[in-house]
Amino acid sequence: MNKKIKVAVLFGGESAEHEISILSANNIIEAMDKEKYEIYLIGITKDGRWYGGKSAEDILGSSKKRYVVSENDLLAFMPGKAGENIVYVSDTKKRIGPDVIFPILHGPMGEDGTVQGMLKLACIPFVGSGVLGSSVGMDKDVMKRLFRESNIPIGKYRVILAHEKEKLSFDSIADELGLPLFIKPANMGSSVGVHKINNRVEFNTAIDDAFNFDRKVVVEEFIKGREIECAVLGNESPIASVPGEICTTHDFYSYNAKYIDENGAQLSIPADLPNDIKEEIRSLAVRSFNSLCCEGMGRVDFFLKDDGTAIVNEVNTIPGFTSVSMYPMLFKESGITYTDLIDRLITLAIERGKKERLLKTDYAGR
């Protein structure tokens, strides 16, 4: 009988997307093949503390209620190649040694390379992009710079740093980008802190709110077009799913439209598009994914203009896995079931870990 693969699912986190992470983690755990995987839970509280055992179970079930944690379940990471590098603080002889970690953390301090760096120090393979792909995939400013360098079509935008806030000129930005326009934190997802604005009053309010979530804010031109999304899967040779379309009943695809309002959006999978545009979007999705040095998984978001021009908006390196999330639904339509998708992501992580372990770490000189 084959030994089960030990998978630790990492969820929660410090960001404003804590609750979405919990919803995603529940779906992933439900879809995992229990005959193939031995599942460990690691829950991160909003104050950044890591818990296993019963406390992690309580965090996982907390999407609708508050949770209670026990300090006996508090976890710590040990750098190095010991093999069992996750330890219980209350009893360091009690350890967890997963073969792979599935981080389903959305937003800063989870999706931005911070956790990925720690997992690399602990020599534990993990699902998704590495440190570099995660960090540039989180920062919409740096992301757009790399897109531009790779000749990937993007919209006009402006970056505002926190110390520049008091010197902002609404008139100059409106002249440069037009109205309406979008304001969003540079490092955030799930449309948290995102506003569509039409005038000076809305602009000032939106800027203040965006700076609540980040010290860098991106102001983008409004692009009239259909909202198209495409999922990507793979390491060296990634593949793209069929494209899907989001038709929202809100002014834009906001947090409320995504997760609160059951009628906030309709998903059209596959999108009703000519074959040549479908293939262009799939090709652009892979190019965008590769330009950011992404690995494992990613969802690429587009605006499709009336003239058929596809504009890349962003790449999400840890896309949602909730019941209404596009990433697993797009691959299901492409012939990969939810359970098979989880299998492939875990396999990709283990394969990358094996290749990285073959790299030399010493040099004797010649």
Keywords:
D-amino Acid Aminotransferase, Chain A, domain 1; Rossmann fold; alpha+beta; 4-stranded mixed sheet; 366 residues; Dna Ligase, domain 1; 3 domains
**CATH architecture classification name of the largest domain:** 2-Layer Sandwich
Kindly report the CATH topology of the largest domain.
D-amino Acid Aminotransferase, Chain A, domain 1
What distance lies between the first and last C-alpha atoms, to the nearest angstrom?
48 Å
Strand count, sense and barrel status of the largest sheet are: 6 strands, antiparallel
Structural class: alpha+beta
Mean pLDDT: 91
For CATH, the homologous superfamily of the largest domain is named as ATP-grasp fold, B domain
Give the proportion of residues in helices. 25-40%
What does the model show?
This protein is an alpha+beta fold and about 375 residues long. The chain folds into 3 domains: about 5-125, Rossmann fold (3-Layer(aba) Sandwich); about 135-150 and about 225-355, 2-Layer Sandwich (D-amino Acid Aminotransferase, Chain A, domain 1); about 155-220, ATP-grasp fold, A domain (Dna Ligase, domain 1, 2-Layer Sandwich). Helix content is about 30%, strand content about 25%. It has helices at about 20-30, 55-60, 115-120, 130-140, 140-150, 170-175, 200-210, 255-260, 275-290, 325-335, 340-355; strands spanning about 5-10, 35-45, 50, 75, 85-90, 90-95, 100-105, 155-160, 180-185, 195, 215-220, 225-235, 240, 245-250, 265-270, 295-305, 310-315. Strands 12, 13, 14, 15, 16 and 17 form a 6-stranded antiparallel beta sheet that branches. The protein has a 4-stranded mixed beta sheet with strand order 3-2-1-7. A 4-stranded antiparallel beta sheet has the order 8-11-9-10, with helices on one face. A hairpin with a 2-residue loop joins strand 5 and strand 6. The longest helix has 20 residues, at about 340-355. It is globular and about 65 Å long. The N and C termini lie far apart (about 50 Å).
